Every structure is written in structure tokens, then in C-alpha cells.
């Protein structure tokens, strides 16, 4: 079992099941907030008494919450006898048996991850923006979801797919949920032993309930993996340049263009008119009303379609690159800094460069390939791929690169892709130095592809998302066929 992946299905629940799903989602939010309250109370008490222990790990949080939910603090009864004496009887949470106990435990696990991220950020061990202390989840703003972990009893798991019907998922304390998509691929993987269920996450997304079944899957068949390269081989790198005029251009160090996708995904721009109209409808509805909830769900469905169309194209581009090339070099883009340009922020966000890089990374590791992140300050766009002279300025409007030293002319994006491939070949043979050559992701290191637990990593086939029109791609070509856009 070398990789994690998820299959997301749209739930078609009965009216009674809708109530049960909402109850479980509310229980998950309640458990998270209560665990956070217990942590804050312990921190306050420790400020006075240093001997007070603060529940910080997932095991401590689970044990502390389990002790609290059966205590008088969670619920109690006052019973008076004939003599007038009143006795306090601890009942705990009166509704705790109406939901699966795993919902409480997984909420504590979520808080544990949030606390770990906060601690790592304070110590400077976490990249990216600074992470603050966890906050309470508000009922109206929280995305309703809960997670159930797979448990086996008597050789039978509590999460089962296709047991009562081909298109169904069975969850403990909830029952069998009908799903709209076909579960054949997942059932075949489970039946042949190529995958085991790890957990199931139920979420309310764009006015619909969805269930994402996370599985531990076996590594891809050797025939679908890239053959390992001999040690010290610096060749075979393909530079991948991402842009807006030409979305993705890939080329080898020799100057050969091997892939080109001219049209970047623009689903957000295409739906701007409808988004404005639906957003106005939401703003005109009274907060907390049923009409506002309906309008918000309608707006959410449009955003979900935008995401699905974008994800479909991203997966198509990533699959084309990963299936045909075992070594990819991607530039390290300062996307946050680029988004500061308000004229290009919308187009950059719509293109989803960061998401494309993430998808390429885990797909490449699944196939045993390599990916290298080129140094952020390497001037791939301003460097001549023939004489390696660095130009002073290359304006964005110039779609053809022209070297002032040797007179070489080439498509701007293909020239940058060639430079990325050359950089990777030169730096791959050096001593491992992440600052100098960027991180390399390689499935043959022995640590597998890593746990990709986010359900957004499903393929277009698994997520049942396809673009409304076929993408225009060109594969192959010679250095002379680069062309500008």
C-alpha cells in the first residue's frame, strides 16, 4: 500500500437521512468547540497553577472529551426525595448515543492538527503564512462536515461500498446512503485487494451532501511507472513554464518543445455575469432566512461548477505531462506577490498555477518520476537558451524572445521552458542542497507518495467532472515550431 487517494460521490439521501447527516455534522462542530474550550480552560488554570496539564495531543484530547461527556458538567439531573433532599445525578450529554462516537474522536484529531500547526508556526518550523491559535467554529459560517474512521469487527468494516446496492455507501449509525455516481472502480479495487478503506468524510458542498471515501491504494503497476534511471544521470529533464498567454509550455534542454497548452482555464471569467446576478440575490435576502440559504446554495453550485471545470483541465494537463515524462522541472512562482497586481490577479487566480503544480507533484510521485523546483530567482524568461546571456528587461507584451547578444529569436515561453530544463540538468548532479537546486520528489526514496488525504485530489473520472468543451492541446514539435501566442 503505497499511496492514498479519495473517491468522492454525491449523496442522494432520504429526508430522514438528511436529519441524521446534519446531526452528525453538528456533533462534529460541537466536539471541536468543546475540546478547544477544554484546552483554553486548562491554559487559563495553568497560568495560576503550573502543575495543571493541558490536553494537547489527540489522545489527550479524546480522553479529556470522553471524560467530560459523561460528567455532570455535560449534563445532570436534580432529583428530590420525599424529605426534600436534592441529589445531583450526572447524565452527561443526553444525545451522545444518537451519533457515532467516531465523530467526536475525529473532531479531536482535527483540533490536534490545528494545535500542531500553530505550534510549528510559532517555532518557525512551518512554511507559509503564520498560523494563529485555533478559533471556535460558528454554526452559520462553518462548512458542515464530519469524518468516520474505518474499523473492522469480525472481518467486516464499518464503512462499506456497494453492499446493499451498486451505488451505495454504508456508514455506522447512519445506514446505507444512495450515491449518484458509479462505484464500480472503487469496488473493483476493494474486491481485488488493491485498496483498503481508511476513512469516509461527509460534507455539505454547494447545496448537496457528498461522501469522500479515502483509501490506501497499492502502488501503480510497474508497467504504468517510469523506469528508474541510473545514478548520476543528469539528462531527461523537461522544463515546464506556466503563464497566461500560453498556459503550459514544456521543452527539453535541447530546445525541443514536447507539450503546449495555449488556452489557460478561464471558468471564473466565463461565469462572472451569473455570479454577479446570484451574489446580488444573496445580498438582498435577510440573513438567517430560508430564502437566503436557498440563494447561497444556488451561488455555491455555480462556484462548484467553476471549480470542477478548472480541475478537469488541470488533471488533463498534469496527466499528459506525467505520463510521458519522468523528470519535470517547474519554476518556483511567487504567486502571492503576483496577485498584488490587481490587473492580473483575476486571471492568475483563474489559472490556478499552484494547484497545477500540486497535482503534478503527487501524480509524478505515484509513477516513480522526479520533479524539481527551480530556484525562485533564476531568470528563466530573460535568459537566452542558446548563449545564456541574461537580458536586462523583457516586457510582458513581448511574446517573442530576441537575444541582443547572439540575435537568437524564439517563442518567449518555449525559451523559458528550455532554460528550466537546462537548469535542472546542471543542478541535479550537484550535492543535495535544497536551497541550491530545489526539492526533488521521488517515489523511489521509499517513503511512497505521501498521504494525499484531501478529497480535492480525486481524478476527473472519480470526481465525475469533465470540461464543457475539449481542451486544445498540441503535443510534440520541433524547436522551430514553438510559435508565439
UniProtKB/TrEMBL annotation:
Residues 443-485 are annotated as: Disordered. Keywords: DNA recombination, DNA-binding, Metal-binding, Transposition, Zinc. GO terms for molecular function: DNA binding; metal ion binding. The keyword Zinc applies. It comes from the Bacteria. Residues 1-45 form the Transposase putative helix-turn-helix domain. In the C-terminal section; belongs to the transposase 35 family. This is Resolvase. It comes from Rugosimonospora africana.
Amino acid at each position: 500500500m503505497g499511496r492514498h487517494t479519495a473517491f468522492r460521490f454525491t449523496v442522494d439521501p432520504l429526508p430522514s437521512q438528511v436529519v441524521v447527516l446534519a446531526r452528525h455534522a453538528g456533533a462534529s462542530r460541537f466536539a471541536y468547540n468543546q475540546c478547544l474550550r477544554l484546552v483554553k480552560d486548562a491554559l487559563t488554570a495553568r497560568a495560576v497553577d503550573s502543575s495543571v496539564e493541558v490536553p494537547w495531543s489527540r489522545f489527550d484530547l479524546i480522553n479529556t472529551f470522553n471524560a467530560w461527556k459523561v460528567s455532570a458538567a455535560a449534563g445532570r439531573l436534580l432529583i428530590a426525595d420525599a424529605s426534600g433532599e436534592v441529589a445531583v445525578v450526572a447524565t452527561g450529554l443526553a444525545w451522545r448515543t444518537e451519533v457515532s462516537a467516531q465523530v467526536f474522536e475525529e473532531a479531536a484529531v482535527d483540533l490536534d492538527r490545528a494545535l500542531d500547526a500553530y505550534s510549528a508556526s510559532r517555532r518557525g518550523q512551518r512554511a507559509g503564512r503564520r498560523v494563529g491559535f485555533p478559533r471556535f467554529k460558528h454554526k452559520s459560517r462553518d462548512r458542515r462536515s464530519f469524518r468516520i474512521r474505518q474499523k473492522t469487527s469480525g472481518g467486516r468494516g464499518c464503512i462499506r461500498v456497494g453492499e446493499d446496492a451498486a451505488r451505495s455507501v454504508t456508514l455506522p449509525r447512519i445506514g446505507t446512503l444512495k450515491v449518484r455516481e458509479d462505484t464500480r472502480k472503487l469496488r473493483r479495487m476493494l474486491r481485488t485487494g488493491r485498496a483498503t478503506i481508511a476513512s469516509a468524510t461527509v460534507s455539505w458542498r454547494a447545496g448537496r451532501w457528498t461522501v469522500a471515501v479515502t483509501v490506501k491504494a497499492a502502488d501503480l503497476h510497474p508497467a504504468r511507472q517510469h523506469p528508474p534511471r541510473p545514478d548520476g544521470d543528469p539528462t531527461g529533464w523537461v522544463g515546464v513554464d506556466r503563464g497566461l498567454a500560453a498556459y503550459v509550455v514544456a521543452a527539453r534542454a535541447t530546445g525541443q518543445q514536447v507539450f503546449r497548452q495555449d488556452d489557460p482555464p478561464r471558468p471564473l471569467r466565463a461565469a462572472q455575469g451569473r455570479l454577479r446576478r446570484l451574489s446580488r440575490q444573496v445580498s438582498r435576502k435577510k440573513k438567517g432566512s430560508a430564502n437566503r440559504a436557498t440563494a447561497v446554495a444556488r451561488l455555491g453550485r455555480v462556484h462548484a461548477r467553476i471549480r470542477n471545470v478548472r480541475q478537469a483541465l488541470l488533471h488533463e494537463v498534469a496527466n499528459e505531462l506525467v505520463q510521458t515524462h519522468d523528470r519535470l522541472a517547474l519554476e518556483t512562482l511567487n504567486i502571492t506577490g503576483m496577485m498584488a497586481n490587481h490587473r492580473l490577479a483575476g486571471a492568475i487566480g483563474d489559472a490556478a498555477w499552484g494547484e497545477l503544480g500540486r497535482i503534478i507533484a503527487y501524480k509524478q510521485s505515484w509513477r516513480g518520476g522526479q520533479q524539481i523546483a527551480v530556484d525562485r530567482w533564476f531568470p528563466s524568461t530573460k535568459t537566452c537558451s542558446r548563449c545564456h546571456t541574461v537580458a536586462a528587461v523583457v516586457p510582458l507584451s513581448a511574446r517573442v524572445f530576441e537575444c541582443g547578444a547572439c540575435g537568437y529569436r524564439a517563442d518567449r515561453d518555449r525559451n523559458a521552458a528550455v532554460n528550466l530544463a537546462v537548469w535542472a540538468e546542471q543542478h541535479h548532479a550537484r550535492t543535495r542542497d535544497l536551497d541550491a537546486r530545489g526539492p526533488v520528489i521521488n517515489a523511489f526514496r521509499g517513503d511512497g507518495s505521501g498521504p494525499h488525504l484531501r478529497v480535492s485530489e480525486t481524478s476527473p473520472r472519480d470526481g465525475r467532472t469533465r470540461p464543457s468543451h475539449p481542451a486544445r492541446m498540441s503535443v510534440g514539435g520541433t524547436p522551430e515550431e514553438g510559435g508565439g501566442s
